[in-house]
Structure formats: structure tokens, C-alpha cells
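User: what does the whole thing look like in 3D?
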Amino acid sequence: MADLAFWMIVLLTLVSAAIVVLNRNLVYSAIALLFTFFGVAGLYVFLWADFLAGVQVIIYVGGILVLIIFGIMLTNRITSVNISHTSVQKSMGGLVVLGILSVLGIMIFNTPWLQTEFVEPVQTTATIGTLLMMDYLLPFEVASLLLLAALMGAAMLSRRNE
Amino acid sequence: MDTSILSWIIWIPVIGMGAIALIPREKVQAIKMVTAVATGIQFLATIGLWTRFDLSNGGFQYMERAEWIPSFNITYILGVDGLSLPMVILTGLLFFLGTFVSWNIDRAQKGYFALYLLLNTGVMGVFLSLDFFLFYVFWEVMLLPMYFLIGMWGGPQREYAAIKFFLYTLFGSVLMLIAILALYFTCGRTFDMLLLMQTAPTALDGVMFWGMSAIKVIWVMLFIGFAIKVPVFPFHTWLPLAHVEAPTAISVILAGILLKLGVYGILRINYTMLPVAVWWFAGALALLGLINVIWGAMCALAQKDLKKLVAYSSVNHMGYLLIGMAAVIAAGEANGNNLLAAQAGLGGAVFQMFNHGTISAMLFILVGVIYDRAHHRDIEGFGGLATSMPIYSGIVAVAFFAGLGLPGLSGFISEAMCFIGAFPVFKAIVIASTLGILLNAAYFLWAFQRMFMGELNDKYKNLPEINKMELFTVVPLLVITVFFGIYPRPFLDLISSTMNVIIDTVANMGGIAGVF
Amino acid sequence: MDSLNTYLFIAAILFSLGLFGVITRRNGVAVLMGIELILNAANLNFIAFAKFGGMNMSGHIFALFVIIMAAAEAAVALAIIINMYNNFKTINVDDVQELRQ
Amino acid sequence: MTGNMIMDYSLLILFLPLVAFLIQIFIGKRLPRQGDWVAIGAVVTTLILSIAMFTSMLIGHEPHFAQEASFTWLDMGAFHIELGFLVDNITITMLLVVALISTMTHIFSIKYLEGDIRYSRYYAYLGLFTFSMNGIVLANNLISMYMFWELVGVSSYLLIGHWFEKDSAADAAKKAFLVNRVGDIGFFIGIMLIFSTLGTFVFSEIFEGISAGKMGGSILTFAGVGLFLGAMGKSSQFPLHIWLPDAMEGPTPVSALMHAATMVAAGVYLCVRLFPLFTPDALLVIAYVGGFTALFAATIAITQNDIKKVLAYSTVSQLGYMILSVGTGAYIAGFFHLVTHAMFKACLFYGSGSVIHAMHHALHKKHDHEADPQDMRNMGGFKDKMPITYWAMLISTLAISGVPLFSGFLSKDAILAGTLSFASHHPGHFLLPVFGFGAAAITAFYMFRLIFMTFHGKPQMEELYDDIHESPKEMTFPLIVLSSLSIFIFYTLPYFNPFSDHGWFSELIVASDAAVPGNPSAHHIAEGIHHAHYTAMALSLFVAAVGIFLSWTFYFKKKLSADEWAGKLKPMYALSFNKYFFDENYNRFIYQPFLKLSALVAHIDWDLYDKYFINGFGRVGKIISFFTGRMDYDGLDQTIVDGIGRSARQAGGVLKFLQTGRLQTYMLFALLGVVVIVLIQSF
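Assistant: Here's the predicted 3D structure for the full assembly of 1462 residues, as C-alpha cells:
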């Protein structure tokens, strides 16, 4: 059962990811991306990362995807029926990407990964919280600074310069 | 002594340079003050070195050691001994005085003083570094500011002079680099000079390069690299040109310190790392010294340009020094263990280094003084200046007399020591080179007569007398010259322990020199 | 199913797809989507390593930071794209060919 | 006087003039009277101190008195030099002579140099000169002697060139220094030879070493000749005599100081000090050089018309005597002559200075700037106008001519006796006494010629005659003092026999034995001199009489015309008058060729070697880079590279689209690169 669910989620993720990159219509791509994100969130669940799965859904789906769709809306006339776009150098790109994939695959399967016994976590969210406030306090602050900077930068950039 | 005073001495000018970089180019006075303060502090620090220097220790003192590039065994080693300390003090002094000589530089002062301080760091670094790689780096650091200082602030032919100087010395340093690398790879991959001094003689024993003994090949390559700086006879022609075209302060530094770097290199590296080859080369060294003496003197005799005359006099004076250096082999078995002659010769050579530093610096400053006033340096174009500028001509007279080796002034003692030391080994060469004493006097006195004696040239009736700033730059050198001329003992005490170490190193190789 | 290699390979495929999108898409927003895919692939790796490395929570923290980064990046990138659109009246990246020979 | 006091006094005598020099040079101009009183005070003090030392020497009456003190000057371990003083009877006597002549010069110069623009400078240099000479006198080792030796050279340079506005003075100063340097080279080589063999510079140690046989043979001869070469330069012996007559360009009191007590005396003093180390061969060289110089310079003096030139050549000739006596072993006689000569020669120079001073003022009054105030042909009959000068000069002339009752007779006689004795032992060297007696005759002749031309006969420039006056007290005082000291009594005390040189001098100043094994002992030489004493006396009296008589007939009675005889002996006259063309020949065969050679060397160095050889490297480099440039461009670039390029252009028509400006393409290729690298790596 779990196996089946797992493979279903994998399939969902990969197929929707393929649609994201291959579909000519941007709106379709965006919607496919939604499913990809959900799929990845599902995989997180399988990996015992419940907190992250939540975050994934909230930020990616609730934040980034909405942003992307806004981007599409803002840059294409919504009235034009065909919000589509073409791709270039597909064959060449596909070849290279396949090459990369095979390289990665060979690497993945040939590397003797160091693995340790799985320990069932007591509570991931609390641990993450503690870690963020203790060990990773500085990166945490830097990240907040980064977000602030991104906010200001985005505002600055998208302003019409009169 | 666990201090980092040597590092401070080296890097103070760089701090000054940083400060200058922050000052706007219009604030010339501030730039000059910063230079003066930086060089002044450095000079005081070198004096401090002297006061706490252990005279009885012939080895290195104030050592500093730090990792730099461990993967290539490159370390940051500094140290000072009786050979380098006088040079360090001289460098500190001349750069300090040189700042005031440069006071009248009238364009691009910011760049000038920044480069000047960089040059200072380079020179100090060469004298103080005990790692071959560091040595080479400083050697090159010194080259570049010199190129710009001559090429941008020099006389009419400055670009030609600068490029010639640069190419000539670069040629030398390439040879030196090859030799350094050869030593590095044959002697256990280290640049540490102290280590090389111990390992090089044995590690190189029997090694051949292209069918020649590696020791000889490396020795000669290093020698040529240094000889260009000295300059030894066939490599000397960059010198008159560079000296003549350089601005006064840079001529002072060139003659006073840069020429000594060559000699210092030969003594520090050729003599202590490859002492065997000294035996093989000493005769040639003395002969080159003779040629330098006579050739330089004759060229000086024929000069019409005062600065060129002084420049050739450097060639001439360096000849005495080479002869003195060659005397070191007197201490060997083959020459009857004549330690006395070796000490006189080597001590004389090092003393001559210092004395030539002060005397030629003085001469160049004085040439600069008259050039600033008359805007030419043609000896024949003056006449009777002693009437219009009595103080100046008095000082010039003393400087000239110092240059011609008058007893009571320091130049005499070092020249005499060089001769006395070399005499037992190279009788014919020394006797021939005593002719230099005469020629020396001839060109200085003749120039003096043409410039200062005779009827006063009306054109120069109202030349202003030497001013306070110029006096300030000359008088310390004058005092040193007179003091060491009367009582040389403090100086010789300073160097003698180290000299004995070098003499021992070379003399001990006498036994195998025959086989070699 | 529940092995590290599986997750890694899934992540690799996801990465390759993202890369393909980045390389081939002409539309800036689409390129951005590709980048998001790549980032997701990376995150997947982190989490997978975290789980199979003895539930090391540092992996989660890293993933969290990547998500934060992604959010910031998406905001800035979209701002750029909108700016570009304002200037060039297109968001097709290959129409913006200032670098052309 | 205790030893310590002697040393203290010597130090004071040495350094007082130096202090005066320093004061004068730095603040002299700002002192009242330009500070001449500082200098005079200093030398007068040294004179008093010297007299004190001298009296103590006379009272103590120790012939072998000697006192040494030294300090370490430099020390490098094995190589160390001790500088020090040696005070013995010779030193004390010499110090007195130097102090006396120096004092007289200082006093004489007050009026002679009055109003000179560099009055304080002049006194400063006199102080330096005195200091340097005292240094030579006191030295107990070769190094400090050499140092002071050169300092003497410098001070002479400064003083001869005192009036440097005149080219001739500047030339003369330079010439003096350079000619001396030639000698100094020999001196220095001698020092090196000795030091490299014996390892010491101290006289006594050198002598010990030589007696012990550590040094000898030809090396010692060479060393001796080298050292003597230094003496030749300073004492202006043939062929290095050329600087001395020119040095007359200096102020006259300087000439007096230089020719009587300081500079030229230094050479003789050196020979006296170092006598024990000369080998027989070296001594022979010395004797011949000295003897020849004595005669040679005398022959030049005959024909000179410049009053100072006559005295200059006479000095050269007298120095030749002293050197000759060193060569024959009778060096104490030479030293004796040095002392007596100092008095009368200084007196003669002051006399001539006094005359020139008078002439100068007279000419000045007449606004005559053409006539030469030093030319004896413009003088004549000054006897009545300048009685003190006349009598002083006459006494000195009698002394120099070797007339009994005067000091010169005693010393000259001793020298001539020495040569006679030497010749009797070595009959092959009969020329030495011939030189000596010949020179004696000629000396008497030309000195009286000087007296007669200057002080007797009709005034040659009548218009001047009335304006000639005796010089002021400051100038006549030294004349009186020094001419009195030319009387025999001062040298023979406590005895009064004017025909015997037996006195305090011969008792207190005794010769030391030669250190070289095989040289005759001092006793032996003294014996020989004693033996030849009366023969020499008779002969010298005879030749002096002949000389004076001839001079009297030529220039006083005018029985024989000098001009006529000059015409008859034209070639010889011309040679003598032109000083045997030494200057001209040196100029033609040495200076000019050497200057030309130097110019050539400089030309080779700068215009050939540097321009073509060194810059040749640059030029060759340029040519090579031109060709490599050509090869690079025409060969490599145009054919091969461009060939590839051309062929690539067709294919590259496609490839150029690689540079699309599309970032994605670039990225694509970057990724391709990654794949390729990974693939390559994995193999």
C-alpha cells in the first residue's frame, strides 16, 4: 500500500515536472508545477520530514506559485488566447540533459553512500526550531536579512522609473 | 629575542603608502610628511636594532619565522646579522634623508612618494629576508617602483634609461631565479637560506648540469644576476644612464643602496651557500675588480657631465670592493691560513659598501643641489663657484676628498683594508689597481678645479648658497664619513663576528677546492 | 522503494527536467519554473540524506534555507522579468540579446 | 719631565692646531680680526710646549730616550691595528722645528696676508697643515704616518690653491696633490709588502721582525724603494720634483712653512724614521736619487729669474742632499741638515716674501700691473732700503752656501763627509761625492747670484726704488729670529768650535743600527764620517769659495757678462732655463696621451660598447621579434591560423551562431563541457 502510494506520488511528481518544462502553454505549466510541488511534499512525508512538507506546501504553493502566476498574468495580455511559448534547442538540450542525467545516475548508483541506522525522530518541528534558534541562529538572521533585501530589491526593480 | 621588529621595519613604509593613498593628491605637504614620518620611524627602528644587537654573535638575530606557502616549503623568515645590519641602517638613513631630497619634486607627488615607500619596503625586504623565495619577491618588488621612478620623474632620456635599467636587471633576476630553482630542486626542496647554507655544499657535490659542475653553473648564474646590480665591469653601462636620468633622491638610493644589494647578494648567497666556488672564482673576481677600478676611473676622467662622473666613480669604487671580497680566500689552507688578510679584505669590502653608500649619496645630493640652481651639470660650464658658494664648495671638497680616499674620512680605511687584505693573494692585481688611487684623485680634483676654482663665471655670480634643507640632508652623511674615518672601530666591531663566520665557511672549503 | 538511491535518482530526474527547462525555454517565467524544479530536486536530496544519515536534522535546516532562498529568488527574478517586460515589451529571454556578436 | 707629561704635551702639540683649524673653519669669520689670534695662540702654545719638551730633553740628556703609547684603532680578531705615538729625541727636535717655523709663519702672515678675502680660511689651513705634520712626526706606525702623510698633501693642496681664482694656482695645487699621490702609491705598496710579510705596522716591531730575518732580500728592497717613493713625492725628488716649483703659486709664508718644516721635510723624516729597514740596494737607489736631484735641481736654479723659483729649486737641491745622506747611511747628518735647513730656508723665503711684499706695494702705488714683483731682473740695490731683510738673507745665504760659522756649514759638511766615506768604501760609487760637491759649488753660486741681483748693484726699475720700504715688524721679527738660528752656536752648544759638528745634537740624536743584517752598523758609519771629516771640510770650503767667487765676478763686479756666457752655452742654458723641459714632456708624453686614452675609453664604453654591444642585444631582440612577428603574422597567422580560420569560416558560418547572445546556449555548452570532463575523468 505504502509502496503503491509512494510510486504514485513519484509518478505524479515526475510527470507533472515534465509537463512544466514541455508544455507550450504557460498557464498549464504553472498548474503542473503545482502538482509537482505537492508531489515533492508527499515525498517529504515519506522521508519523515513532516514539517518541511508543510512548509513546502505553504511557501511553494501558497507563495512562489502564486507569484509565478502573477508574473504570467502581468507580462502577457490576458485577453490573448494563446498564452503559449516556444522552446529552443530542444534536441541539443535534451541530449545534454540526458548526458547529465546519465552521469548523475552512474554516480548515484556507483557511490557507496555512507548510511547510518534510521532513528525515528521524536518531534521534527521542535528539533528544527531548537536548531534554528541555537546552532543556526546566525544563518537564520542572515536569511531574514536576505529576505528583506529581496523584498526591497524586488520593489525597487519593478518600480517604473519615471 | 622574540620580537617582530624586523617585520615592522619592512612593512612600515607600506603602511605609509596606504596612508598616502588615502590623502587627496592636492595635499602635497601631508604626503611628504607621511613619507618623512614613515621613513623616520623606520630609521629609528633600525638604530634600535643596532643598540640591542649582540656583537659577539656572528649568526642571525631577531629571527622571525612564519608559514607562508607550506606546500612549496616557502616560509616567511627574517633575520639580521653583521652583514645585513649595516646595510639596513644605511637603508633606513638614506631613505629618510632621501625624503627630504625629494622635497622639491614638483609633479605627481602622490605617486612618487607612494612608489618611493614601496621601493623602501622592497629594499629592506631583500636585506632582511632569509627565505630565498621571499628574497626574490622583494627583489622584484624593488625593481618595479624603480622603473617608474626613473621613467616618470627622471631627466630628458628617462624612458630610455628606465627601460634599459629594467631590462638589464630583469635579465639578471631571471638568471637568479633559475639558480634559485636549481638550488630548490637539488637541495631538498627548500627555500630556507639557513637550511640551504648547510645542505647546499654537500647536496650539490658531484651534481652536473650540462656536463659542468652544478656548483659552478649556479654560482655563475647568481653572480651575473648580482653583478649587474653591483655593477661589475661588462654589465655596468646601465648605471651611468640610470644615475644621470634619475631624479636626485633616486640616484642617491640607486648609488647608496641598490648597488650594495648586488654585493650583499654575492656575500650572502654565493659566499655562504656555495663557498667552494669562491675558490674557483676569486681570481676572476679580483681581476674584474681591477678592471672596474681602472675602467671606471678612466671613464670618469673623461666625463663632462658631473653626475655621470659621479656615476662612473661608483664603478670605480665598487672595484676596490670586489678586490677586497676576493681576499677572503687568503684564510684558506692553500694560502697559509692568512686569517688576517681575509678579515682585512672582507671587512674592508663590507665597510666599503657602507662608505660608498654614504659618500656617493652625499655626492649625488650635492650634484642635485647645483643642478637645481644652474639647471645643468656640465663641468666645463661652471668655474669659480668657490667664490660665490663657499659653504657648498667646502662641503663638495670634503665629499670629493672622501671619494678619493683621503685618510681621516671613511673611504680611505675601507679601500686600504681591501688592498691590504687582497695583497698577499693577488699581488700583481693589487699593485696594478693602486693606480686607481691616483686616477681617483685626478678626476675628482680636476672636476673640482674646473667647477670651483679659477675665475668666477659671471652667469653664476648670484647662485644662492646651499639651503638649510639641503644641509640637513648632507650633514649627517658628512658626520658619519668623518666619524668612521677617524674611528672605524664601532663599525668593524659590528660586522666582525659575522665576517669571521663567512671567512670560516669559505676557508674550510679550501681543502676540497683543489679537487673541485 | 525505501532506499537512498531511489530518492537520489528521483531528484536527479527532477533536476534534469529543471535543467532542460532552463536551457530550452524562451519565456523568462518558464525558466524560473525550471529553476524551482532544480531547487526542489536539491531539497529532496537534502532530506533524503538527512533521513538515511541517521535523521540528522541539519539537512532539514538546509532545506528550509533553500526554500527561503527560493522565495527571495522568485521575488527578485519576477521583479526583473517585469522590469524587462517594461523595457523590451517581451519576456522572451532570447529576444534580449545584448550579448550577441 | 715624566713620560706621562711627555705624552700629554705631545698630544697637546698635536691637537691644538687641529682645534684652531676647527674653530677657524666654522666660526673664524665671525671672530674679531677673523680669528687669527686663535691660530697664533694655538701655535705659540705648541711652541712653548715644544720648547719645554726640548729643554727637558737637553737636561735629561738621554741619547736613547724613547716613549711609546698606543690604542686599538680597529680590531676584527686577527686583523687589528694599533695607532700610537713614538716620542724620542728626533721627534722632540722635529716638533720644535715644526712649531717654530709654524709660529713664525703665522706671525709673518699677519701682515703679508692682510686684507685677504679668505684670511680666516688661510689660518685654518695653516693649522691643519701643522697638525698633519705633527702627526707624521709623532707616528709610531706606518698607517698613521700614511694618514697624516695624505693630510699633509691635502693641506698643501688647500694652501697652494689659496688664490684659486688664478688658474695657475689651481693647477699648481692639483699638480702637487697628484704628483704626491704617485709617490703615495709606492708608499702604500711598500706598506702592504711589509704588512703582508710581518703583519704589523709599528716601526719597532717591523725592525725587530727584520732583524729576526722574517723579511729580507728583494721583497724588503722593493718595500724600501716603495716607501722611499712616497718620500720622493713629498720631498720632491727627481723625477717627481715637478710640483714643487709650481707650488710657489701659494702665498710666500706657506712656501716657507712647506719648504722648511712641513711638507718636504716629511719625506726626509720618513727616511730617517725608517732608515733601519732599508736594504743596501734600496739605500743605493736612495743615494743616487738624492745625489742626482741635488745636482740637477741646482743647475736649474742657476738660470731662474723668479726669486721664489730660485729658492724652490734650491730647496729641491737641498732635499736631495738630505736624501743622499740617508742613502749613504749618514742619515743623522741628513736630519741635522733638515733642522738647519729649516731655519735658513724659512728665513730665505720670508726674506723673499718681504722683498715681494715691498715690490708689490711699490708697483701697486705706481698702478703698474704688468711688471712681475717676483722677477729679480726688476730688483737691485735694495740693500739700503731693506737692511734687516738684507742682513737676514745674507746670513741665510752664507749658511746655505756652507760658509763656516753658520749652521749650514756643519750639516752640509757632515753629509759630504758621509758621501766621501761611502765612496771610499765603495769606490764604484764615486759619483755620489761628485754630485754632492758639485751641488755645493752651484748652490753657493746661485744663492749669491740671488743676493747680488736683488740687493746689490743699480736698481733696475728706478721708478719703483723710492717706494721700496722695509717690511713691518711682524715680518722682520721672524727674519731676525730665524737668521740668528742659522748661526753655528745654536747647534754646537755646549761647545764653541765652529768647525766641528760636535754638540748637543750629535750627542743626543744618535743613529740606530740598521735592522737589515749586513748593513754597516751606526758606529761603523760614524767612524767613517769622522774619518772623512777634514777632507770633506777642506773640499767643501773650496767649492763654496769657488761658487761665491764666480758669482761675485758675474753679478757683483760684472767682470764677466752672464748674458754672454748664456749665449755661449746656449743649449745648456736653454735646458736649464726651461727646467729640462720636464713639464712639457710630462704633458706631452704622459698627461695628454692619458687624457686621450681616457676619452677613448669613455668613448668605447659609452658610444661603442654600450651603444652597439649592449643595445645590440636590444636591437637583435627587436630584429628577432620582427622576424618572429613576421613569421607569426605571415606564416603562422596568415597561412596556418587563417587557413584554419578560412576553412573554419565556411564551417564556422554555422559555428558563429554559437555566439547567439543567448545565455541559455552558453549554459548549454557549459553543461556539455561538464559532461565531457566527467567522461574524460572517468576513463
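In plain terms: Residues 78-83 of chain A have pLDDT under 50 and may be disordered. The domain at 1-110 of chain A is CATH 1.20.120.1200 (Four Helix Bundle (Hemerythrin (Met), subunit A)).
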